[in-house]
Amino acid sequence: MRHYENLVIVKPTLTEEEIKNTIALVEEVITANGGEIVARDAMGMKKLAYPIEKNARGYFYVMYYKSAPAAIAEIERRFRINEEILRFVTMKYDSKREIAAWNGMVEKTKKPAPTAAVAEKKEEVAS
User: In angstroms, what CA-CA distances link 27 with 4, 8, 120?
Assistant: First the structure.
């Protein structure tokens, strides 16, 4: 099993429920091909650097997972035929240094948002 990261950009014209269904389908494709999703990061709606299919914005979603190298071709094929996905990129982490960086990114996604931590500290100080 190798370490991978996938960034998926979903069309902004979809409703919140349709975006969730598309993300669930993306995750199902990974797990159905023997992948194990370790962490997820919903980055939300962001402005694109350039328009893609006349869309200036997109919903960004990142997944960190482990999978067999043979499954990646099928996962990417399924991403290509999904019309709700504007773009995707798959990154492979091979060396010990890259895997350490991958583990660091996974840990960052598991930590609470910095705004929540700041709010908690302000409450403690106010008490």
Answer: 13, 11, 33
* Predicted pLDDT of residue 118: 52
Q: What are phi and psi of 105, to 5 degrees?
A: -65, -35
Place of tokens 């067999």: 68
Q: Which residues contact 59 (CB under 8 A, 6 or more apart)?
A: 9, 10, 11, 12, 14, 19, 44, 45, 46
pTM of the model: 0.81
From residue 45, give the alpha-carbon distance in Å to each of 14, 59, 61.
11, 4, 9
Residues in the chain where the model's pLDDT stays below 50: none
